[in-house]
Amino acid sequence: MMAGDQYTVSGAGAIGKAAHSGSGDIVAGGKYVGGTPPEASALEKLLEEVQAMRRHLDESDRAEVDAAVEELGENPPEARFRRILATFSGIATLIGEAGVPVIAAVKALMG
């Protein structure tokens, strides 16, 4: 704080003033609050399996998977992250054997 600055902070996760220089995110409490962030290698494995699964999908399911993959790139909150995993595993379940690697990758991420 600089001389004369005053901040009133209240409520869970309140951080007051956040100043930033450089690159990266400023996140109150950190991403994936209440849980641990997924390991990069496990997430990369899931994305590889999802890409392999895409060729077995119809246009509608491919569009849903593509939207979910895009959303993963935006670092969603943990609750949304789990719903995206549920989307992947649900679609993978419906296509049968071709979806088994995706289901395994989802299980690895959910621990």
Q: Can you tell me about this structure?
A:
This protein has 111 residues and is mainly α. The chain has helices at 40-54, 59-72, 78-95, 100-110. α1 (40-54) runs antiparallel to α4 (100-110), α2 runs antiparallel to α3 and α3 runs antiparallel to α4 (100-110). The chain is globular.
Q: Pairing-aware structural class of the strands and helices?
A: mainly alpha
Identify the overall geometry. globular
| Uncertain regions spanning at least 5 consecutive residues | none
What is the makeup of the main sheet? none
Order of helices and strands: HHHH
- Quaternary state of this entry equals single chain
Helix content: 40-55%
State the total count of DSSP E strands.
0
Per DSSP, the total helix count is 4
| Strand fraction | under 5%
> What is the arithmetic mean of pLDDT?
79
Radius of gyration over alpha carbons? Answer: 19 Å
Distance between the termini: 41 Å
Describe the structure concisely for a colleague:
With 111 residues, the protein is mostly helical. It has helices at 40-54, 59-72, 78-95, 100-110.
Provide the descriptors you would attach to this structure in a database record.
single chain, 0% strand, mainly alpha, 4 helices
